[in-house]
Structure formats: C-alpha cells, structure tokens
Design brief:
There is one protein chain. The protein has 22 helices and 15 strands. By secondary structure, the protein is an alpha/beta fold. The protein has three domains: 167 residues, no CATH class; 275 residues, TIM Barrel, CATH 3.20.20; 46 residues, no CATH class. The longest helix has 27 residues.
C-alpha cells in the first residue's frame, strides 16, 4: 500500500486524535467507576488537516484540565502532532509516527512494515499487489492480533489506518466473509446478535477471540438520544456504511456481520407515489453494505399495510445486488405496531402481538425475504423482554412455523443474558441484544461501551442450555423443519417431526429424550461447512438415496460445483 506524504501526514494526525480520544474515554471510565456514556449520536464529517490538528489540540486541553495526571503524555503527544504538521520529509513523518505509537505503548516490531520513500510511504503486510489484496491482508493482521491477544505494533496500526482510508475512498472488502447460515445446520443453532454502532465492536467485540463464537456482529445505532417516542425516533437506526465496513474489516471471517437499515420513509405519505424512490434508495443502501461482505441487512415493516409490505419487500429483493445464497434479507416486524391486512376482501386491523407475529410469517415469505425478526420494542424504556410479551408456547409455534416455511428466525427487545436459555429452548435462530450488554446511564438511558463480561455470560448461558434436553430438542426440531422445507426430510421422520413439536410444547422431558434418541441419525447430521446450495443439494440427494429415488442430474451438478445450475434444479425439486 502506497500513501503520498500528504496522506501519511493525515494518517499521523488521525492517529493522534484517536489516541487522545481513547485516553479521554479511559479516564472517564476510571473516574465514573467503569461507565462513561456515549455522546449523542455522532455523524462523520469531513475535516481538513488543519482542522484535525486543532481538534486534537482542543481535546488535549480538555484532558489536561479534567485529568491533570495525563499532562506529561498529552503534552508530548501534541508536541509530536506539531512535528508531524511541519515535517519536511517522509522519513521524518515515519519517525514521528513511531514516536507517537511508542509513547502510547505500542511496540515497534511486527508483521507490517513502514518504508519511507521520496514523497511517499510504503506499508507492506505481505505480497499484496492492489488495494483489495491489501484489505484482505489487514483483515488477516487483525485476526492474528485478536487470537494472539496483542495490541497492534506501529506498522500494524498504520496498516489498519491505511485500510480505513481505502474504505473511505470506495475500495470494497471483497475477501471471504462468514454468512448467517440456515436454521438447523449451524454449529451454534441460536446465534447471539450483539448490537452497537461500530466503535465498541472494534474496541471490544473484535478484540477477544472468545467473544465471536456463535456471534453475529450487528451494526446499528441503538441510542434513542433521549427521545423515546418510536414514531419520532426509531429504536434502531442505520449506521454509516464506512462504519459497517470497518467493523467487517475487524471481524474478518470469525463471525458474520449484519446491519440494520431501518423502516422505509415515504416522504409524501403516499405509498404508490413514493415506492420507486423509496425502493431504489433502500436497495442501494443494502447493496452498499453487501458489497463489503455484510451477511445480512434488516429492514423494518412499518408505516405500510400488509399488501404494501409484500410489494415493498418484493421490489427491494428484486433491486438489491447480492449473493442470494449467502447474503440474507431480514424483515423486522414490530409486535406492538398494528397492521392493516388488506390483501383480500375488507381490510382487517391486526393488533394483538401474536396475531401480528403470525401474519408476519406470511408477509415475509410472500415478500421473498429470508428471515423474520420479531421485535418487541415500544415507547417503554427499557423494553419488556420479547420472551415475556408472548407465551413460550406461542413463540415455539411461531419459530416452528417460520422454519418449516423456509424462513430463519430472530427475536429482539429487552433481552438479557439469562434470556438466552429461553431462546435456545425455542430453537430461534438469532437473538438481538444491545442495551443490556452496554454500560447504561440509568437516568438518561444513554449507553457507553460494550461490557465483554456480559457478552461472555450470554454466550455461556447459550452454550450450557444447548447441551440440555430442551435445547437439544429445539435444535433438532429446527433441523427437521429445515429438511421439511428443503424436501429432504425422509418419510420415516415425518411423523416424528410433529411428535417432537408437541412434546416440546408440553415441555415433556421424557418425550423429548425419547424422540432425540429415536432421531439420533438426524441429530448427528453435520452442520454446514460448504456453500449452502451445495449442502442443500447433498441433503436432497441423501434423502433420495435413502428412499431409492434417482437424482442423477443433481449428483452430477454437485460434483461439478455449478451453484447457479444447482440452484435452478433445487427450485424444481422443492417447489
């Protein structure tokens, strides 16, 4: 990666500002006993080099005033920033950068190197030959740093910042990414989806290798900035594309990344008149996220009737640029927002949360989206946990029905780490948590940094629950439901699927244990590790062989790994 002298000068000043920001936040955390609220939602702004320097100097003044003990380091940092502003050669700039990083505890050795050349600085990580390969190499560096649990060395820190600059100027993350997967065939049947605007993901979630097991790194704004009327401010809002891209850079292939896009805006309040612009706007936002390897984008189904919601989803699905096998579209359905069902006959107002959730399955399936998210947020803060708004039996029935129709499932709002036990026992595919995993100011409800110990607790509860009879039974039901949808469920398991749902509804331990024993072969089926279309075809073939049905064309195409042809063949088999 090559940076001009001007670009590298800015990189040095950006690093100074970031280090001072981190110092300020750490001091606030210490002074407040571990909590420092996030300021009202920040927006990215374009700043000149001189403005970056002035902002860093102003931040330094605040640090000296509020935390006098930081003065020696702060003063030296600002002095080095001044040297960066006046440095005449790239060699001087590289030396200043090394001094800044050393002052703040970063070692100098590492796999990435800085080379000062006339009028430019070369950053080498491996044998990358273009910007896309450089981004891949930096993703590898970040993964290595995460798993070895070390702070980036000076060269690595420069490479990460240079990668940010690549993303800023439109270079896409084209390297490998992890997808959400399909119900029943994931290593972790119930994924924890941790929500944050981005900064805490890069500082906390992506720093610990133990925090990404069975996790979805979800990027969204979760602060309402003290406005709790959901009609005025959505409980969740879309992040900047560049923030989502940076989180994806840090996450690499260790976990899927997802993004909340938001509910559609119809500016003239006429669905028909505004549909074209709204669909193109939201499809473009989704496509921009998918271009960086985001695995899932979530859109809200609000301010629309049932028929309008279906038309909106179909139009978005038809306009989004994505890999439909590995990048999913999620429809978020507010359980506390009534929907007018106007698809046939006289319009009917559907207002009971369970009825709204049931209707949502039909709408999302007909709209061509891949996942349904049942959200229990309201104007009440903190939200009542969604698992307490509907009974266990109702939720289990919803998850079961969604899975057997081919949809993945997700629940959110008010969820605490201990609620992962209920989520696992439901067999739900994903659980959204945001507020409860952050430091929260009890008076203002503003949030601070993510708390890694709470993420670990949620994951531990999830993993323990998955090994017990209710969790095993629910995971097995999700698997059988998926096989049913794929037309890959052997005939001998058809009645057992119904029985398993019934004993899980009754929480009949003996019945669940007996059925999991009888269905041991199904439980032993491996989770997906290959392309999802290939895996689906293998399951169809396995059923055909078991029942002596010939699927020679499928077998031939699987052997050739022609995903496009295979998808067409499977559509015929399933539909």
């Amino acid at each position: 990666m090559i940076l001009t002298a001007g670009d590298f000068r800015r990189l040095v000043l950006d690093r100074v500002h970031t280090l001072l920001e981190t110092m300020a936040e750490d001091e606030k955390l210490t002074a407040a006993g571990g909590f420092a609220k996030r300021e009202p939602t920040p927006l990215q702004h374009r700043h000149s080099l001189a403005e970056v320097y002035r902002r860093a100097a102003a931040l330094a003044s605040e640090l000296r005033r509020d935390h006098p003990g930081t003065a020696p380091v702060v003063d030296k940092t600002v002095e080095l920033a001044g040297q960066a502003m006046t440095a005449r050669t790239t060699a001087e700039l590289v030396d200043v950068y090394a001094d800044v990083l050393s002052l703040h505890g970063h070692r100098q050795d590492g796999p990435a190197e800085l080379h000062a050349e006339p009028d430019r600085v070369r950053i080498t990580v491996g044998r990358e030959e273009n910007d896309a390969e450089f981004l891949d190499a930096v993703t590898g560096l970040l993964s290595h740093s995460r798993h070895d649990d070390h702070r980036p060395a000076a060269g690595e820190a420069a490479a990460i910042q240079a990668a940010y600059r690549c993303l800023d100027r439109g270079v896409a993350l084209t390297g490998p990414y992890r997808s959400i997967g399909v119900p029943g065939f994931r290593r972790f049947p119930t994924a924890l989806s941790v929500a944050d605007p981005g900064d805490s993901h890069m500082r906390v979630t992506c720093r610990g290798p133990d925090l990404t097991r069975g996790l979805v790194v979800h990027v969204e704004h979760i602060d309402r900035d003290r406005e709790f009327d959901r009609e005025k401010v959505e409980p969740y809002r879309m992040p900047a594309v560049v923030d989502a891209a940076r989180v994806r850079l840090h996450t690499g292939t260790d976990a899927p990344c997802s993004v909340f896009i938001g509910r559609p805006v119809f500016e003239s309040e006429s669905f028909t008149r505004d549909l074209l612009k709204t669909v193109h706007l939201y499809a473009a936002a989704v496509a921009a996220m998918f271009m960086h390897g985001i695995a899932d984008c979530k859109l809200g189904l609000e301010h629309m009737t049932a028929a309008e919601a279906v038309e909106f989803m179909r139009a978005v699905a038809g306009n989004v640029v994505r890999d439909p096998s590995r990048q999913t579209l999620t429809a978020a359905l507010s359980l506390n927002t009534p929907i007018v069902d106007d698809r046939a006959g006289a319009p009917v107002l559907v207002s009971e949360p369970f009825d709204v959730a049931t209707l949502g399955i039909e709408l999302v399936r007909d709209g061509g989206f891949d996942r349904i998210a049942w959200d229990g947020s309201s104007n009440q803060v903190p939200a009542v946990p969604v698992v307490e708004q509907l009974s266990f039996g109702h939720l289990l029935g919803l998850v079961h029905h969604a899975h057997e129709t081919g949809l993945d499932t997700y629940i959110s709002a008010g969820m605490l780490p201990d609620h992962m036990r209920t989520a696992v026992n439901l067999g739900v595919g994903g659980v959204g948590m945001g507020t409860s995993l952050h430091h929260v100011d009890l008076d203002t409800r503003l949030m601070g940094r993510l708390r890694p110990e709470l993420i670990r607790r949620a994951l531990d509860v999830r993993d323990r629950s998955a090994s017990r009879w209710p969790g095993r039974g629910a995971a097995l039901l999700a698997r059988l439901d998926r096989l049913h949808f794929e037309n890959a469920l052997p005939a001998v398991w058809v009645s057992a699927r119904t029985e398993l749902f019934e004993v899980l509804q009754a929480q009949d331990r003996a019945g669940v244990v007996e059925l999991t024993g009888r269905l041991a072969e199904a439980e032993r089926m491996p989770e997906d590790t290959d392309h999802p279309v290939i895996e689906r075809a293998r399951r169809v073939i396995a059923r055909a062989r078991r029942e002596s049905v010939t699927v020679a064309e499928l077998e031939r195409v699987v052997a050739g790994r022609d995903v496009t042809h295979l998808r067409e063949l499977l559509t015929g088999v399933v539909d």
